[in-house]
Design goal:
The structure holds two protein chains of two kinds. By secondary structure, chain A is α/β, with parallel strands linked by helices. Chain A is built from 13 helices and 14 strands. In chain A, helix 3 runs parallel beside helix 12 and helix 4 packs parallel to helix 5. The longest helix of chain A is centred in the N-terminal third of the chain and has 20 residues. In chain A, strands 7-6-8-9-10-13-14 form a seven-stranded mixed β-sheet, sandwiched between helices. A five-stranded parallel β-sheet of chain A has the order 2-1-3-4-5, sandwiched between helices. Chain A folds into two domains: about 210 residues, 3-Layer(aba) Sandwich (Rossmann fold); about 130 residues, Response regulator (Rossmann fold), CATH 3.40.50. Chain A is elongated, with a radius of gyration of 22 Å. By secondary structure, chain B is mainly alpha-helical. Helices cover about 75% and strands about 5% of the residues of chain B. Chain B has twelve helices and four strands. In chain B, helix 5 packs across helix 6 and helix 10 packs across helix 11. The longest helix of chain B has 29 residues. The chains are: A alpha/beta, B mainly alpha. At the A-B interface, strand 7, helix 8, helix 9 and helix 10 of A face helix 1 and helix 10 of B.
Chain lengths: ~375, ~290
């Protein structure tokens, strides 16, 4: 009763007829909410997310659905805006009565959705959000599909220490926001245990286009290699300018440069760069990965990207959890997600006590403009 | 190292100066602060890129020309479609300036619709092999951009001093009523002012695109910095805009190397505030006071 009253207050008079309608529909379909940036600057990620989720749901529905019921995905476009993600989550929880929610893509939007879904007690699996704090706020309803940022940095540090032991002193360039600063702080913290040191700490603002000054200062500090914690547009410019100023250092990048546009924008300057990524055809192995890449290619006639992989795994986790729970109710579904243990398209996948996956970060090196497995 | 930083600062300074020129010319002729000037630059950049897509064999000067033409046409279209009508209706100046902000947002969204929201790569128009200059290795793009920029600005000076349209523009800028009494066609001259201002910005767009990327939002922050550069030089002054642009580019680059890369924007803006406090007329004011 209280839920209904709160819903009515929040949703206003327009939603008056909704609860009755939702009950009638919930009998014939299991509803899953998906919230992502289907328009706006991050639309490329949102569209990949939607494609992969629709693919999983389509496959399951053709095989008879779940528990004898059809799956229905409700897509909500947050355009990358946290307030919109929160509104959509509220609607999913109260009006659409979904069993769980997939999304969103960015960390701020995912956090905003998480606050609402925690209140409403709906399980959520975020797709690409890597901010550590999403799963560290004691929220038992949130899970993620991506490797969180600190784990990713720690995996990259281990990779450098094992595969490139001569690289111990680093020039570090990063974008001056949560993403870049977080990457830098974690690298310093995990690197310390490996005896790494920082010779130059250089920053820039989001949207900057000229990095020659930073690169010049990094070169002057005479490091063994350079770390670049950027997103792909700035990252590609940094590669091109590094070539112009003849930096002559091995560059290691973050997962922010993993979108394919990075290689497109950087062109030849990308050769030799090494970066962490959440998924790459070059590092994918196993039957699940092969099947997944073939399915994406067949359904959408394009190569599978990182967001496809994350969303595909998230949707698979969701469907399997409903099957294991033998129920589409929110609490049993949440408990079943926690028990996830399967071979994802990115490798063996389980959840730790926080709701983070226990995947190991993939690392790739660019050779002739293509990703290759850097661990090989 | 000093040489390459200097050339880098000069090249980015040329880009600011070309946009700042547009701000100052339009300001002089119509008293409008044309906040869509950065977007005119973006349209020039995108058009030049589109030309390269359609005809990859085009040499760099032709691409530059395409960008200039597109920028010029875009600015004239804005003037004819919106600003002139607003002026004729006697709308207060503040509202016209607000309309230029609206125009800027319209252009940004239109560009996203046409060219998408991903940054687009320009081909290497000017080669990539570094040039040896005073013992330093300098990327050739920077040299070409600095040279082309300075040449364009010199050309503009000649145009303003020695052609009928140029002299008419100067006359309108000084006293529109007197100019009209002397037989200058006010409407046409103002349109020409927008056209020339747009061409300068369009050239800047191709230069900036070839140095970095083309991006639907590229005009916003660059336009803002060019406006600051124009103010630094003395808003409404042609020489001031050139000086302000070049100086702003150099200060930004040098302070990034020698002060802090994270706060390079802050250094430029701090300088601007100091200058406006002590020299409200900008750099040109300093020169006038000295005489």
């Amino acid at each position: 009763m209280t839920t209904t009253r709160r819903t009515l207050l929040l949703a206003g008079a327009g939603a008056l007829a909704a609860p009755a309608l939702a009950v009638a529909q919930s009998r014939d379909a299991i509803r899953i909410g998906a919230v992502g940036p289907y328009s706006g600057n991050a639309a490329a990620f949102g569209i990949s997310m939607r494609e992969a989720i629709d693919l999983v749901v389509d496959q399951r529905n053709r095989a008879g659905g779940l528990l004898g019921r059809r799956i229905e995905v409700m897509h909500g476009d947050d355009a990358g805006r946290p307030e919109e993600a929160a509104n959509i989550s509220r609607r999913f929880a109260s009006r659409d009565r979904v069993s769980l929610v997939l999304g969103s893509v960015s960390s701020p939007a995912s956090l905003a959705a998480a606050q609402v879904l925690r209140d409403e007690e709906v399980a959520q699996i975020t797709i690409s959000a890597t901010a550590q704090r999403i799963t560290r706020q004691g929220n038992p309803w949130v899970f993620r599909s991506a490797v969180p940022d600190r784990k990713l940095v720690s995996d990259l540090v281990d990779f450098i220490a094992e595969k490139h032991p001569t690289h111990r002193r680093f020039g570090f360039l990063y974008v001056n926001d949560d993403f870049g600063k977080g990457g830098f702080d974690s690298f310093v913290e995990f690197g310390r245990a490996r005896g790494f040191s920082i010779t130059a700490e250089e920053r820039y603002s989001r949207g900057d286009i000229d990095f020659t000054a930073q690169l010049t200062r990094i070169r002057a500090s005479q490091p063994d290699a350079m770390i670049d914690w950027s997103r792909y547009a700035e990252g590609a410019l940094i590669l091109r300018q590094a070539r112009q100023v003849q930096l002559g250092l091995q560059i290691y990048g973050s997962d922010g440069v993993a979108p394919p546009a990075y290689l497109e924008l950087a062109g030849e300057a990308a050769n030799g760069v090494i970066y962490a990524t959440h998924f790459s055809p070059a590092t994918a192995s196993g039957a699940e990965a092969e099947r997944f890449m073939a399915a994406i290619r067949q359904a959408y006639n394009k190569p599978a990207d990182m967001t496809h992989a994350q969303a595909f795994d998230a949707a698979t986790i969701a469907c399997d959890a409903i099957l294991r729970a033998r129920s589409a109710d929110r609490q049993p579904v949440r408990d079943a997600i926690r028990q996830t243990d399967f071979n994802s398209v990115r490798g063996p996948f389980r959840y730790d006590q926080f709701g983070d996956p226990t995947l190991v970060t993939h690392v790739v090196r660019i050779v002739n403009g293509r990703e290759t497995n850097a661990r090989a | 190292m000093l040489t390459s930083i200097f050339v880098g600062g000069l090249a980015i300074g040329c880009v600011y100066a070309l946009i700042a020129l547009g701000f100052s010319m339009i300001m002089r002729a119509t008293s409008i602060i044309h906040f869509a000037q950065g977007e005119v630059m973006m349209i020039g950049s995108m058009s030049g890129l589109t030309a390269v897509w359609l005809a990859p064999f085009l040499p760099a000067p032709v691409v530059l020309l395409v960008g200039m033409t597109a920028g010029g046409l875009a600015a004239v279209a804005m003037e004819l479609a919106a600003y002139r009508t607003l002026r004729r209706r006697g709308v207060p100046l503040m509202n016209i300036i607000t309309a230029t902000v609206g125009m800027s947002i319209l252009c940004i969204n239109g560009a996203r619709l046409i060219w998408g929201s991903e940054p687009l790569r320009y081909p290497d128009l000017f080669g990539v092999e570094p040039v040896l200059l005073g013992g330093a290795r300098v990327p050739p793009q920077l040299l070409w951009i600095a040279a082309a920029g300075l040449l364009l600005m010199a050309g503009l000076q000649l145009f303003l001093k020695h052609t009928r349209t140029g002299i008419a523009m100067q006359a309108v800028a000084q006293d529109p009523d007197a100019a009209q009494l002397m037989g200058v066609n006010l409407t046409r001259t103002m349109a020409a002012t927008f056209g020339i201002a747009g061409m300068m910005a369009g050239a800047a767009g191709v230069m900036l695109g070839s140095l970095f990327f083309s991006f639907f939002e590229m005009g916003f922050i660059t336009g803002l910095k060019a406006f600051v550069a124009a103010t630094l030089g003395g808003l409404g002054s042609i020489v001031g805009a050139i000086l302000g642009g070049l100086l702003f580019g150099l200060i930004e680059t040098f302070s990034a190397v020698y002060v802090s890369s994270a706060y390079k924007d802050a250094v430029g803006m701090l300088l601007l505030i100091l200058l406006l406090l002590f020299l409200p007329q900008g750099l040109v004011g300093l020169w006038r006071r000295g005489r």
